[in-house]
């Protein structure tokens, strides 16, 4: 009947009468005492439309009665339906095996006296099918049972949990999963109750075990709740079973003897069972009275609304139901995180190899063996993929063999191996497709160059023909009476534009079509998010669902994160620290870390130039986020960021990155489209040629101007090619005041700049450098480079440097033009312009990238009559070009650095000889490593002068006081450290490299830290305490006496 109702409810109005009658019939049956199916046991689905319609009819008939909802839960064949039938005289079906499927509800009216006492008119009973049914596949029933148990517990005011014997058996795992689900579904705000019934336990046995049994049982429930709360980072809020599901171990446990006294079918009913049933019924009525006293009784309409809300929450929470218990869930989450790292490592290696090969193919135009490059690239890709795949397989085997949870992990080993193979195949498909696209683009460019070369003479002829046609029409007044004399420049451009579009269409037909398929970048970004946040999938969907006040990914990318204490989980003894130090908000800590994450993501996105989209770009953005979250946890012992923070920041970052990716792909395709490139480079030149021919400009003048136009374009391009290198040379030249050619000097300049901020009592830049030295160095290099370019005595340095490059190039051009012209005069050669241009480009090959064949077709002219006229106009034209570019470069700012193929700050920060050097920092004090970028051997701190360890958040366990000694002083004193707050194993500082590979810290006497850091600790002690949640230590007197001038004196030399 329910299926029929839901089917016709979507049909035409002719069924309206039936739509009204069916729920009414079912409502009358329910009131008369017949059960109504609440959950379909085969489909594990609640037909909300049907159930809601029936209950609304009941609500109308019974005038919205007040109810108490009671449910029962237990393993199959433990007598659940029998118990309900005995308690309330109802008629739920009973038999051996799976007699109940899904969940059924039935209304039981209360006696008038009870109605007055309980302020309740009906008990709504919910009977359920037995869990862990042997008829069903164990792998399929796990999800179903966990979902069913959570649903019936959450829906009821009280759930009777029926256990056969003293031990709960598989119910332990089911209850743990239900508790876990309730913790994840915080928005529903439920706190149901439960009552445990142990069947087939005699009163004697129950009394003997009594108190100790109940204590052990409660302890077990509390332990599983604590485990689930820890998995959800809610251990500060929930530690006992009673905090999630109401349970009193003194009152809410009843022991039942066996129903039969002897062996059925001849055995009589055990009267002890009936007595216990009366006892349990009394407890249930007492529970209803307690609810009435606390004003917790609900009416049927409230139950309907709660049913809708809770079922929706259960549907969203599909992750935790798939596991046997919380330990299994947390183990799978750890495996999923580890697989993400393997997958990311694989993607990174393949992406780098793919990019290198693509670059090689794109630049292979001069290679006579270019036709073999693509096959070689594919071969290299397959070899690299196999090598990395085999290495990861070995690592994975080791992981599954050595992890403490290996007995649980083994069930997912085969699945993980399959996933890794799938990742390999997916990466190979993408890499091969990308390389094929690069190769096709390269072939298309070669073909386009060939077509354009062959078509050049045709275009020149058509330009001449167009000019002749216009002049002829003008002579016969066919262009309109409004024309007096020649066409204006604008009219010429309009005529040319019409013809040009026709010529481009012809070229497009002749060219090789290489446009790649349009990628759905948004789907790729969302897919990466779903894969990386598999455990939080329901929250991720909800945040993007407009129906639940969510936003689209693009909208997320436009908002500013709203940070507060709700994004922080306080753990352990930090409550004591709050009372001692007085912290009441963690918002500044979260804001600081969030800014660092956003800055690093923006810097990463800035490096993605002239690239097609790759899914690993999204993974990198999320990896930066996860590393930032780990850094926050490491720097702020006792604090963690919530899952909600992680999801919201990931959505904001990915929404922002999505827009950047779309712009990047659009630019990439425009830059690599052969026809568009040809149109962009040649249209202006042919328009000029058209105007010169139409206006009957002298050949020498026309050729000279066209020649200068080509020179202008190439000179501008070459200036920006050289600009970045020249700026880097200035910054790395030790004779320059702005010298930052060594990391030692670079760090000194950063500390000096931060010192100036400290003079103004601004600690922000210093705190960023303390907590995030690598990111701070990168940001400082960029800012320093931009300031260097934007400042100067009379003109900005970037303008001065650009004009110096321009001066060198223009001098070389003028000298070359003069030398070539003199050669013609001395040897008396016939003045053929193509020969002159050929000699000119040959001599200037090392200075400028000039297309000889293109430049030799200046207006289709082969010979010129007057070499002096040509050279005079050429000199004038070059002077105009020189002045024009000087004026243009005079307006340059640091923003124009983006026009360089490689920006100077990128070269300084991440180039082959990057001045920023190694990105490692000391695990204790965060002092950056002073060595080069890809150094071999151990890390090194300049002069072995580490900071006080409190700069890295190191504090004494127990007192939480900041540690003022340096790491190398600890080595000198042969002291030890704890790896983190939770371990109890001490490790000697002398052997720190065993815990932190590469960090072999040398010994030095105490007090070897820079005065700079002593000053910072003494003057900004409170800020450091806030940064790392530490308690203050007594600052040495000599540190307190230091002034900023003493601190900055460390760098005077």
From TrEMBL:
Gene3D superfamilies, per database record: P-loop containing nucleotide triphosphate hydrolases (3.40.50.300)
- Pfam family, any one: URGCP_9th
- Could you tell me which residue ranges the VLIG-type G domain spans? 64-308
Q: Which SUPFAM superfamilies match?
A: P-loop containing nucleoside triphosphate hydrolases (SSF52540)
Q: Which InterPro entries does the annotation name?
A: G_VLIG_dom, GVIN1_dom, P-loop_NTPase, VLIG_GTPase
Q: Which residues cross the membrane?
A: none
Leader sequence segment: none
Could you tell me the superkingdom of the organism this chain comes from? Eukaryota
Which terms in the Gene Ontology molecular function aspect does this entry carry?
Answer: GTP binding; GTPase activity
Q: What is this protein called?
A: Interferon-induced very large GTPase 1
Species this protein is from? Geodia barretti
């Amino acid at each position: 009947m329910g299926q029929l109702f839901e089917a016709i409810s979507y049909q035409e109005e002719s069924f309206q009468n039936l739509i009204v009658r069916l729920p009414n019939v079912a409502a009358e049956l329910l009131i008369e005492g017949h059960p109504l199916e609440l959950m379909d046991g085969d489909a594990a689905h609640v037909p909300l439309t049907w159930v809601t319609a029936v209950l609304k009819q009941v609500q109308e008939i019974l005038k919205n009665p007040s109810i108490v909802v009671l449910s029962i839960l237990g393993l199959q064949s433990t007598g659940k339906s029998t118990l309900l039938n005995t308690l309330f005289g109802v008629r739920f079906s009973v038999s051996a095996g799976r007699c109940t499927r899904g969940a059924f509800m039935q209304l039981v009216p209360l006696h008038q006296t009870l109605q007055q006492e309980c302020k309740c008119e009906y008990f709504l009973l919910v009977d359920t099918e037995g869990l862990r049914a042997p008829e069903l596949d164990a792998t399929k029933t796990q999800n179903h049972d966990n979902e069913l148990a959570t649903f019936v517990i959450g829906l009821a005011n009280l759930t009777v949990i029926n256990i056969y014997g003293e031990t709960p058996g598989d119910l332990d795992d089911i209850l743990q999963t239900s508790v876990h689900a309730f913790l994840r579904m915080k928005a529903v705000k439920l706190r149901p109750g439960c009552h445990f019934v142990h069947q087939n336990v005699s009163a004697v046995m129950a009394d003997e075990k009594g108190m100790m049994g109940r204590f052990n049982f409660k302890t077990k429930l509390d332990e599983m709740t604590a485990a689930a709360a820890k998995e959800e980072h809610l251990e500060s809020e929930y530690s006992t079973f009673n905090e999630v599901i109401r349970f009193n171990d003194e009152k809410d446990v009843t022991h039942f003897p066996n129903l039969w006294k002897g062996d059925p079918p001849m055995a009589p009913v055990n009267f002890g069972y009936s007595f216990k049933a009366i006892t349990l019924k009394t407890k249930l009525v007492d529970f209803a009275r307690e609810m009435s006293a606390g004003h917790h009784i609900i009416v049927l309409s409230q139950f309907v609304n709660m049913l809708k809300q809770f079922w929706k929450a259960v549907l969203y929470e599909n992750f935790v139901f798939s596991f046997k218990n919380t330990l299994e869930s947390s183990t799978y989450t750890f495996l999923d995180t580890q697989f993400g790292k393997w997958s990311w490592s694989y993607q990174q290696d393949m992406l780098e190899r793919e990019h290198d090969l693509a670059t090689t193919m794109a630049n292979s135009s001069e290679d006579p063996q270019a036709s073999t490059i693509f096959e070689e690239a594919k071969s290299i890709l397959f070899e690299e993929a196999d090598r990395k795949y085999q290495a990861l397989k070995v690592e994975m085997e080791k992981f599954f063999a050595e992890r403490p949870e290996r007995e649980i992990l083994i069930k997912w080993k085969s699945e993980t191996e399959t996933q890794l193979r799938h990742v390999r195949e997916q990466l190979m498909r993408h890499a091969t497709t990308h390389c094929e696209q690069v190769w096709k683009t390269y072939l298309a460019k070669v073909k386009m160059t060939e077509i354009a070369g062959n078509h050049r003479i045709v275009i020149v002829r058509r330009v001449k023909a167009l000019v002749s046609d216009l002049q002829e029409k003008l002579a016969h007044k066919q262009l309109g009476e409004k024309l007096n004399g020649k066409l204006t420049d604008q009219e010429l451009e309009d005529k040319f534009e019409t013809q040009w579009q026709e010529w481009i269409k012809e070229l497009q037909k002749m060219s090789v079509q290489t446009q790649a398929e349009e990628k759905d970048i948004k789907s790729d970004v969302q897919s990466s998010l779903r894969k990386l946040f598999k455990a939080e999938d329901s929250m991720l969907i909800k945040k993007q669902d407009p129906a639940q006040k969510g936003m689209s990914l693009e909208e997320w990318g436009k908002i500013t994160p709203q940070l507060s204490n709700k994004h922080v989980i306080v753990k352990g003894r930090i409550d004591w620290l709050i009372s001692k130090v007085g912290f009441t908000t963690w918002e500044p800590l979260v804001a600081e870390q969030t800014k660092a994450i956003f800055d690093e993501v923006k810097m990463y996105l800035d490096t993605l130039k002239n690239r097609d989209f790759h899914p690993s770009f999204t993974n990198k953005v999320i990896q930066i986020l996860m590393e930032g979250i780990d850094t926050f946890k490491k720097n702020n012992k006792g604090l963690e960021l919530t899952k909600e923070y992680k999801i919201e920041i990931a959505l904001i970052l990915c929404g922002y990155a999505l827009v950047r990716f779309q712009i990047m792909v659009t630019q990439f395709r425009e830059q690599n489209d052969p026809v568009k490139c040809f149109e962009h480079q040649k249209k202006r030149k042919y328009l000029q040629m058209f105007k010169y021919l139409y206006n009957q400009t002298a050949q020498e003048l026309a050729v000279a101007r066209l020649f200068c136009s080509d020179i202008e374009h190439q000179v501008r391009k070459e200036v920006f090619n050289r600009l970045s290198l020249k700026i880097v040379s200035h910054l790395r030249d030790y004779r320059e005041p702005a010298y930052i050619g060594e990391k030692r000097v670079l760090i000194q300049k950063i500390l000096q700049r931060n010192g100036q901020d400290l003079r103004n009592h601004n600690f922000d830049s210093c705190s960023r450098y303390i907590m995030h030295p690598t990111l701070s160095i990168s940001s400082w290099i960029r800012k320093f480079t931009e300031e260097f370019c934007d400042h100067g005595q009379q003109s900005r340095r970037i303008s001065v440097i650009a004009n110096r490059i321009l001066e060198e190039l223009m001098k070389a051009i003028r000298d070359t033009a003069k030398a070539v012209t003199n050669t013609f005069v001395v040897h008396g050669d016939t003045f053929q312009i193509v020969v002159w241009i050929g000699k000119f480009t040959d001599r200037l090959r090392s200075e400028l990238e000039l297309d000889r064949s293109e430049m030799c077709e200046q207006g289709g002219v082969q010979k010129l009559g007057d070499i002096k006229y040509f050279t005079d106009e050429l000199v004038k034209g070059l002077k105009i070009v020189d002045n024009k570019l000087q004026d243009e470069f005079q307006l340059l700012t640091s923003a124009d650095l983006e026009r360089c193929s490689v920006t100077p700050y990128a070269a300084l920060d991440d180039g082959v000889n990057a001045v920023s050097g190694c990105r490692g920092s000391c695990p204790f004090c965060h002092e950056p490593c002073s060595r080069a970028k890809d150094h071999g051997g151990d890390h090194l701190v300049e002069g072995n002068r580490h900071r006080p360890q409190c700069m890295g958040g190191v504090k004494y366990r127990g007192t939480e006081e900041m540690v003022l000694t340096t790491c190398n002083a600890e080595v000198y004193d042969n002291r030890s450290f704890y790896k983190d707050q939770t371990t109890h194993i001490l490790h000697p500082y002398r052997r720190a490299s065993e815990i932190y590979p590469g960090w072999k810290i040398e010994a030095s006497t105490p007090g070897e830290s820079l005065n700079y850091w002593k000053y910072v600790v003494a003057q900004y002690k409170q800020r450091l305490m806030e940064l790392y949640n530490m308690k203050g230590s007594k600052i040495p007197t000599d540190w307190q006496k230091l002034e900023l001038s003493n601190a900055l004196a460390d760098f005077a030399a």
